[in-house]
Amino acid sequence: TGISRDFPYEEHTVQLRPGDRLVLCTDGITEHMNAEHEVFGVQRLDELLTRTRDQPAAALPERIIQAVAEHGAGQPQDDDQAVLLMQVKG
């Protein structure tokens, strides 16, 4: 339904350095379920990003979408799935 005005958003400042990556994704990534009704989740996403930190940034959005599909093992996608990855150059 989009951004909610009633949601208690928090604001943080983070200093990014050369080589750091920022990954933004829709809830369709983290909330995609498998047949056992287990969501992909933030922890799996974090583990995937840790395992692939030495891979080129350009390949990671597709790798994330692939990992979510593998987790779902054929379960229908019922929400949008988008990934935006930025890497700081320096």
Commentary on this structure:
The chain is of the alpha+beta class. Helices cover 31% and strands 11% of the residues. It has 3 helices and 2 strands, in the order βαααβ. Strands 1-2 form a two-stranded antiparallel sheet. The longest helix has 13 residues, at 60-72. The protein is globular. The termini are far apart.
Topology:
Blueprint: E1 21-25, H1 27-30, H2 41-51, H3 60-72, E2 83-87
Antiparallel strand pairs: 1-2
Provide a short characterization of the protein structure:
The chain is α+β, with helices and mostly antiparallel strands. The protein has helices at residues 27-30, 41-51, 60-72, and strands at 21-25, 83-87. It is globular.
Q: pLDDT average, as an integer?
A: 92
- Distance from N terminus to C terminus (CA atoms, Å) equals 37 Å
Helix-residue proportion: 25-40%
Shape: globular
Strand content: 5-15%
Q: Report the sheet with the most strands, covering strand number, pairing sense and barrel closure.
A: 2 strands, antiparallel
What is the total tally of β strands? Answer: 2
Q: How many separate helices? A: 3
- Compute the CA-based radius of gyration: 15 Å
Topology pattern, helix = H, strand = E: EHHHE
Unreliable segments of 5+ consecutive residues: none
The helix/strand class is alpha+beta
Query: How is the largest sheet built, in terms of strand order?
Result: 1-2
